[in-house]
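User: Please write out a complete single-protein record containing the residue sequence and its fold in token form, without commentary.

AI:
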Amino acid sequence: MTPQPPVNPDNSGDGRGGPWSDLDRPPLNEKALRQALVRPGSLWTSLDVVPATGSTNSDLAARAAKGEAEAGSVLVAEEQSAARGRLDRTWSAPPRSGLFFSVYLEPDVPQARWGWLPLLAGVATATALARAAGVDTALKWPNDLLLTVDGEERKAGGILAEAAGDGVVLGIGLNVTLRADELPVPTAGSLTLAGAQGTDRDPLLRAVLRSLEKWYGDWRAADGDPAACGLQEAYAAGCATLGRTVRALLPGDQEIRGEAVAVDGDGRLVLATGDGVQRPVSAGDIVHLRPAADAG
């Protein structure tokens, strides 16, 4: 991975890296982001940008567990050294090369419906990127963001929801300006590699948080009912997993193969197996085997 200059410790342009370091990756403007997003009546109650951390999810979850995080808190990092995905997988990226942030929410809906939050975040992020970056983002169940790079679907981001305090910490990571020689694995992608029209992280972050506020508000107004607020339909429309033959790797070293035919009202992926049985999957790794057009 190409070495990167140190992240600006105070987001002011005169930190360790100097005002002219890595010009294509300027620091986020914390003050402007707060002015745009933290306002009376907004979902967002605070917004902090830190130069570097291990994981924004871990940091915000620790605050919530101590009662130190208010619902609507947003924590953004210019660099993460130990960001976590599902199954405790870790990953890192060069400073200021992406959007790495977590939000703390206390949904006033039945807890049985909280499982829709990572899917809601996927819909919100895809909606925002279509508008702000001019790229189509597909959703891989349950929590991956896919972009098309050189005609291939590649993972460019992920979402992780964790219970914390009286609510949920929702983390989103998105590769923005990673170059080909910086990708952690060849199957990864970024907005830049997907030909995005805009890669300025400030407007991208504003767009994602505003989209998340809108979808979350509609979901809460419907008491968490994903069908009533249009979330279930929107997720299905953007889900690249549906209609494909997949392999589901389940806890306990179990495996199911079948065609992904639906996402049910509980957010589970429904697989039609070869023996004619429809199996709902609530957790597991999903491997796309063949496109829908080739299945059968």
Residues 201-221 form the longest helix (21 residues). Residues 1-20 have pLDDT under 50 and may be disordered.
